[in-house]
Amino acid sequence: MDISTIVIAFTAVLVLALVLFLVLRRASRTGPQPTAGMLDKTASTLGAALRRAWGPGLDDSAWDRIEEALIAADVGATSASEITAAVRRENPNDAGEARRLLAGQLKSFFGGKDRSLSLRGRPAVVLVVGVNGTGKTTTIAKLASRLIGEGRRVILAGADTFRAGAGEQLKTWAGRVGVNVVVGHEGGDPASVVYDALESARAGSDDVLIVDTAGRLHGKKNLMAELEKIHRVSGGEGGVAEVLLVLDATAGQNGLTQVSEFAKAVPLTGVVLTKLDGTARGGIVVAVERQLDIPVKFVGLGEALDDLEPFDPDSFVDELLEES
Ligand code: GDP
Fold it and tell me: Average pLDDT for residues 293-315, to the nearest whole number?
């Protein structure tokens, strides 16, 4: 073997070793991806804001900055002030202890509420109400898909006969999920759609009937009268298992002002907070529970069928306060 062959062989081995080293290093960096949380964007926003707010010490201005960070996260001014005061009263020694106390305050705020989905009655009637565009139809499809995954028989009713195309949109989703759907014709009586769907659910031995309702009519009064009628036809308070209000998390505090009328018309039993994936202000969950006094039962985290999660306050708070 002459010297040039040895040099070539040696160089080849070196290059191979280098390539192998680079590949292995890259693989160890990539590793398994963390599972997506409820609040990927919010976590970095509020967590980082709090870290900056606390800074080196816990003086008066640090507490003001903490309160501001909570307000900026949509917690609401009153809640932010109360929560900050409660943490401050505990006299934490450092930022780490303050963060733990804040987490404790938020967790106890959410604690003790029943967040399960009631499915009493056969069929269990779940009315879904809310302003147009908040994600009602998508939420109905996601919920149906979830219930089917649990082995239940589900049927949908399209009782939004006001919005052109609402029935078609629901039919498309029903097709994707693989459930039956009863829709009315445009301008028809929504209560009679519900009545027909109930008949169909009983005949087909369905476990759950999910009802889509209008988010807008000619005038608020008509809309609320219509919702009351749908609720009555569905069996009233004794017969309706859930009245879920769908709220868009990206609308922030503004979204909340629109919903008091719904609460007057029908007894709301739970909130589905949609588009939590699209906001950097997850504190809206605190504001919703405080102002409406209704438990958030589900959160929407995307547009796909499996992007609906039961709301878990403890993981939510941990994520909310995460620093990155
Ligand atoms: P509706 O008018 O209340 O029935 O609203 P739709 O169900 O038609 O939803 C309005 C838009 O919001 C659609 O583009 C949906 O894909 C989108 N959407 C619904 N829920 C979510 C969610 O949780 N996250 C995101 N990113 N988009 C959502």
Answer: 94
Count the residues in the chain.
324
Assess whether 261 and 148 both reside in one domain: yes
- Quick check: CB of 136 below 6 Å from ligand 1? yes
- In degrees and rounded to multiples of 5, residue 219 shows phi and psi of 90, 145
**In whole angstroms, what is the distance from residue 66 CA to residue 49 CA?**
8
| Amino acid present at 8 | I
> pLDDT tens digits, residue range 112-168?
899 999 999 999 999 999 999 999 999 999 999 999 999 999 999 999 998 889 999
Contact assessment for residue 42 and residue 280, using Cβ atoms and an 8 Å cutoff: yes
- How is residue 124 annotated by DSSP? E
Q: Whose CA is nearest to atom 5 of ligand 1?
A: 135
Q: How far is the CA of 304 from the centre of ligand 1 (A)?
A: 10
Domain that holds residue 69: 40-108
Phi, psi dihedrals of residue 74, rounded to the nearest 5°: 75, 20
How many other C-beta atoms lie within 10 A of the C-beta of residue 193?
25
pLDDT by residue (tens digit) across 166-177? 999 999 999 999
Answer yes or no: do 87 and 175 share one domain. Answer: no
Q: Across-strand partners of 244?
A: 128, 270
Q: Is residue 138 lining ligand 1, measured as CB closer than 6 Å?
A: yes
Q: Tell whether 292 is covered by a domain.
A: no
At 10, give phi and psi (nearest 5°).
-65, -45
How many domains are contained in the chain? 2
Which residue owns the Cα nearest ligand 1 atom 19?
A: 135
Residue with the bigger pLDDT between 51 and 318: it is 318
Structural domain includes residue 287: no
pLDDT digits (tens, 9 = 90+) for 64-84: 988 998 998 889 999 999 999
Across the strands, what pairs with 211? 127, 157
Best of 129, 137, 138, 307 for a ligand 1 pocket test (most atoms within 8 Å of beta carbon): 138
CATH of residue 230: 3.40.50.300
